[in-house]
Structures are given as structure tokens and as C-alpha cells.
Amino acid sequence: MVSSSAIFVLAVALVLGSLYTPLDSNALFATQKPLQHAVTSNNILLVTAHPDDEALFFAPTILALQSMPSVALSVVCLSTGNAEGLGHVRKLELDRSLRVLGVDKMRILDHPELQDNQTASWDAAVIASVLKRYVADFKIDTILTFDSSGISSHPNHQSLPAGATALIQSLHPNPGQTSGAQLLRLFTLQTTSLPLKYTSLLAVPLTKLDVYAFRLMQRFERLILSIVATWYPNLLDLTIPRNPEANAQPTFVSGYEAYGTAIEAMRAHESQWVWFRYLYVAFSRYMWVNSYVEVRLPVEA
């Protein structure tokens, strides 16, 4: 009979082993509609609300995308985080943090209607207006930002997806009738339940298990389709190849080296190192794992 101590040692070994290498799934945010070619991302804009958001919430994404030669990543932070009068300090801290993360294309704004405020939401039209310039300047095809829950329920975080959606609607008022140029797409960082938010190291093996299980199911699906195509060659349209990653949930899992880099980036925000930040970087899954959901705009006939 296997002892409980042996099971414990095995479990610890599996968790620690899972931290050795990073993993991503659908890192190019591929989507594919029936009988159409897959769409992937090349010029990505990460939109944050405050300095330190990039290190606390998006580091796994930034580090993974920065390692991909085919992707150009830009970051726009919509405020200086001046709630406590430290905006001038936090601008410098953000610059240092992004340099640690390898990002050189960044902008930080100080708009009178987009000020750091724990109790006030930002106007979607204002967000759309200020983002429009950067989407054009950087030739952006994909926006990444918080979802409507904002991870930490901060109202400034929660305002961002509505602003990005308003921008896309202004650029593509009739997406169903648009042809040619790729539509601007929006993916939001998925907010998890409170217990999952603080799973720390356990988030890595659990997420990797999900990714591997999904890939196994994909292989099984392709096997079934190949068998069907053998017997009924006219049943399936194989003229347009299917992207193997298309429509899988975009997920980025850091290894221990990337986690260390994320901590180093957060250390650049010296003004924000209060006691609960230590607990956050130690236990938050967002220091290790980012998963995204596409925001699909309604298509008018």
C-alpha cells in the first residue's frame, strides 16, 4: 500500500515540475469561422488602467508575447495612478517595469476624465476616443484588457472593456458587411472566483492539465474527422485548412523564470509595495496564469 507521505512527495514533485517550463495555448488569439480562413493577431495593444496593472495581472501574457517574433506588443496605460498624489513617481515606475518585461512601445496618459479613482467608473466614449489614436498609430488588430469584473473589482478596470467595445463599434458599425481588412478584435482577461484567484502555484499544473486535456480531445476529433473523410470524401470541405489552435481559449502559463521576472517588474513599483502586495505576488494565480475570452460584437444582418 502506498503511504500518504509518498503520495505527498509525488504531488509536490508534480507541482514543482510543472513550474519548470512555460506553456501557452492559442497564443496568437486565432479564431476561425466555418468555411473561412483563420484570423490571428500580429499587432496587439494591451490596455491597462494604472501603473502596476501590467506586472500584477498581465505579466504572463506580456512575457510570452514578447518572445514571439511575429507579434508586436504595445501597452497603453490610461492613467498615472495619481489617487494619492504620486502620479509623477508612478509614471517612472511604469517605465522601469515595462523595460524589465521587455516592452518598449508604451504610452501613459494623464487625461482629466480618466483619473485613478476607487469609487468612480470611466466613461466608455472617453476611453474609445483616446484609444483610437493608438490603434491607428500602432496598426493594432487586437486589444487585450480587463473583463467587466476587472479581476479586483476596481471600477476603473471594469470600465475598460466597455470603452474598447465602443471603439470597435465606432470603427466597424456594420461588422457583418465588412470585407477585406481584418476587424479589430477584443479579448478580455478572465476573472476567476475568489478561491481560484489565490491558488498560487497550484494554478500552473491545473491549467496545464486543462490545456493538455483539450489538445487530446482535439486529436480525437481530428481522428474521427479523418475516418469520416475516408468513407465520405464529399461530406467535408477540406479546401480551407483548419487552424489547430483556432477557437481554443487563449492561455498563457509562466514558468519559474517568468514568474521571477514578473516579481522584478513589480519591484519597480516601489511606491506600491505595501504589505498586502507581498501576499498578492505570493498567492495570486495572475502572476502565473492568464486566460482570455473574446468579446464578440453582435452582427446585424
Automatic annotation (TrEMBL):
Keywords: Signal
Protein name in the entry: N-acetylglucosaminylphosphatidylinositol deacetylase
Signal peptide residues on this chain, from the entry's feature table: 1-17
Example GO biological process: GPI anchor biosynthetic process
Recorded GO MF terms: N-acetylglucosaminylphosphatidylinositol deacetylase activity
E.C. number: 3.5.1.89
Lineage: superkingdom: Eukaryota
SUPFAM superfamilies: LmbE-like
Record's keyword annotation contains Signal: yes
GO CC annotation: endoplasmic reticulum; membrane
Record family assignment: Belongs to the PIGL family.
